[in-house]
Amino acid sequence: MMILSLFPSLCVLSRAPTLREGLRCSNESGADFIGASASGALMAAVTSGYRVVGWNGRGWQPLLGSMRRVSVGGAHVWGVTLDKKLYRVVDHRWYHVADNIAHVFPQPSGAIYVITVAKRLLCGRGDPLWPLAAVAFEDDGLPTTCQHAACNGDECWALGAADGLAYVKRTAGCGVGGGWEGFTDVRGAVSLLAILNNGDIYSKSSTQIYVRPHVYGSATWQLVNFPTPVQFVGANGTHLLLITNIIGSLLICEV
């Protein structure tokens, strides 16, 4: 059984929307979602009953296992259970990786960021040739506890759990390049971050969405004009993944 397949055709627009117009989205059939993740052609989601499903190009296909969160990075699917255990999919089966993990953020480069139950941001690297090999995680130097993180191929952003600040590291890899730089321009009580390939940062504050365009030194967060309250925001390269607040519909939005 194939675990995941290709995306369906996403939104095709005659012109890109502006922030004032908001977002143009396609509604992937189904509802009752609480989380989703995608990387390239792979997409997985979790329902309110903690069932894991994958998109097969025509609809959602149930996957084995029960997860609180799933995250897709490169060619691999990772999951965190209700009892805070980290797993990854190898040959269509879940394999245990680590304990006491609250979030996982795998990167296409092979780097794997995790947030522990103690809210420490750790980084490790999987072996693409030996996917069942143990992953050694180490502290990545964030100067505070961490609530959420997001990376693209060039940089990583982390949301401080203690101070509410956003931090950025200009090189997205375990322990490489310079350290984390703090920003004081987080808009509102941010709970989630998502970053696109072009460096634009999206955040969820309460049920609203903000964007910080990728301009170094800019301290401006702009409210995205989106008519429906959202409970989740994520990113896949050039698209946002949104889950609505009322019935849990999953939207794929071109920005």
Structure explained in plain terms:
- It is a single chain.
- It contains no helices and 24 strands.
- Helix content is 0%, strand content 49%.
- Strands 1-24-23-22 form a four-stranded antiparallel sheet, with no helix packed on it. Strands 2-3-4-5 form a four-stranded antiparallel sheet, with no helix packed on it. Strands 6-7-8-9 form a four-stranded antiparallel sheet, with no helix packed on it.
- The chain has one domain (24-254): Methylamine Dehydrogenase, Chain H, CATH 2.130.10.30.
- The protein has strands at 24-28, 33-39, 42-47, 51-55, 60-66, 69-73, 76-80, 85-90, 93-99, 101-106, 111-116, 121-125, 138-139, 146-151, 156-160, 166-169, 181-183, 190-195, 201-205, 208-212, 222-223, 230-236, 239-244, 250-254.
- The two termini are 33 Å apart.
- It is mainly β.
What would the principal axes of the Cα set say about the shape? globular
Structural class: mainly beta
- Number of E-type strands: 24
The CATH architecture can be named as 7 Propeller
Q: Into how many domains do the coordinates divide?
A: 1
Distance between the termini: 33 Å
CATH fold-type name: Methylamine Dehydrogenase, Chain H
**Total DSSP helices:** 0
Cα-based radius of gyration, to the nearest Å:
17 Å
- Write out the strand line-up for the largest beta sheet, numbering strands in chain order: 1-24-23-22
**H/E series:** EEEEEEEEEEEEEEEEEEEEEEEE
Let me know the average pLDDT. 79
Fraction in helix:
under 10%
Low-confidence region ranges: 1-21
Chain oligomer state:
single chain
Percentage of β-strand residues: over 45%
